[in-house]
Write a structure and sequence with these properties.
- By secondary structure, this protein is of the alpha+beta class.
- It has 2 domains: 13-157, Fructose-1,6-Bisphosphatase, Chain A, domain 1; 166-277, D-Maltodextrin-Binding Protein, domain 2, CATH 3.40.190.80.
- The chain has 8 helices and 14 strands.
- It has helices at 13-30, 50-66, 82-92, 107-112, 182-196, 206-214, 228-240, 268-277; strands at residues 38-40, 47-49, 71-74, 97-105, 118-125, 128-136, 141-146, 150-153, 156-157, 170-173, 199-201, 220-223, 244-247, 260-263.
- Strand 10 (170-173), helix 5 and strand 11 form a beta-alpha-beta unit.
- The termini are far apart.
- It binds D-MYO-inositol-1-phosphate and calcium ion (CA) (2 copies).
Length: 285
């Protein structure tokens, strides 16, 4: 089977991804400040609202209208936790076409009215991401990448930054909601990077951080303890914009990677070294 088989009607997967992300994003924006229900998942820091759930349902319906045979792995469609998500990924990865959906990346921001969140959608074909779309409804910025065809923001090609070393770079990090393992490890990396970079940022949306690395607005992003839906679309955006995406030990990105480093390529080695020296890779031997 080749990409684009099993298409109902004439829309390409990329067009469906763009349409789904845009529609969901507009709806999420319309609900900013007016969500009806707030729950926590694994920890009091891990939030979910009726808007996350509603947006995921909307995206699922739109995708299945065009691709009824495709598999969908969405954050809100499964039990929370690293084990459940690894299991779901392993199960879903046996299908040729797998959509990977984060309906709201940056839910804490959405809940608090901090204007930095997005919809993140990726399509993987036999385990490799071939389409990545990230939509920021508040800035109306649509980031689109297709494997081998480059990446774009509103039709303009994106390129990673030219910064050649950490000292001239602005790098993003994440304060992961898992306070048992991920956050303490992230803090070691944050400590190291804060001293070595021009400055660090922690906007609270992994996917938007990756889109910003792709667009050259940040030179790198690092976080321990991510899930496939946080990263899949953004990883393709960074790669198609000329950057490098690996795990924290420098191994190439694949759908199972949870400890991530994404950069403009030029600072990748230095960033990996810095995280290794700080014992902040999250990879236990
Ligand atoms: C979270 C955000 C945050 C990152 C967390 C993610 P969510 O996703 O991307 O920036 O630090 O690790 O879980 O819960 O807002 O979809
Ligand atoms: Ca997320
Ligand atoms: Ca989410």
């Amino acid at each position: 089977m080749e990409p684009n088989d099993n298409v109902v009607g004439s829309k390409s997967p990329t067009a469906v991804a763009i349409n789904s992300a845009s529609k969901a994003g507009e709806w999420i924006k319309s609900r900013l400040g007016t969500y009806k229900q707030l729950d926590t998942k694994l920890s009091p820091q891990d939030l979910v609202t009726d808007v996350d759930k509603g947006a995921e349902l909307m995206i699922r319906k739109l995708i299945l209208t065009h691709f009824p045979d495709h598999e969908i792995l969405g954050e809100e469609g499964m039990p929370p936790g690293a084990d459940a998500s690894a299991e779901a990924l392993a199960k879903a990865s046996t299908s040729d076409y797998l959509w990977i959906v984060d309906p709201v990346d940056g839910t804490t921001n959405f809940v608090h009215g901090f204007p930095f969140f997005c919809v993140s959608l990726a399509l993987a074909y036999r385990g490799e991401v071939v389409v990545g779309v990230i939509y920021d409804p508040l800035r109306d910025e649509l980031f689109v990448a297709e494997k081998g065809k480059g990446a774009y923001v509103h039709g303009n090609p994106t390129h990673v930054s030219e910064d050649a070393d950490l000292s001239s770079s602005v790098v993003a990090v994440g304060f992961n909601p898992d306070r048992q393992f991920a956050l303490p490890t992230n803090m070691k990396g944050i400590n190291a990077l804060a001293m070595q970079t021009r400055s660090i940022r922690a906007g609270g949306s992994a996917a938007l951080h990756l889109a910003y690395v792709a667009a050259g607005r940040l030179s790198g992003y690092y976080e321990i303890g991510l899930n496939v839906w946080d990263v899949a679309a953004g990883a393709l955006l960074v790669k198609e914009s000329g950057g490098t995406v690996t795990d924290t030990e420098g191994n190439p990105y694949h759908l199972g990677v949870k400890h991530l480093v994404a950069t403009n390529g030029k600072i990748h080695g230095e960033m990996l070294e810095s995280l290794k020296a700080a014992e902040a890779t999250g990879i236990l031997k």
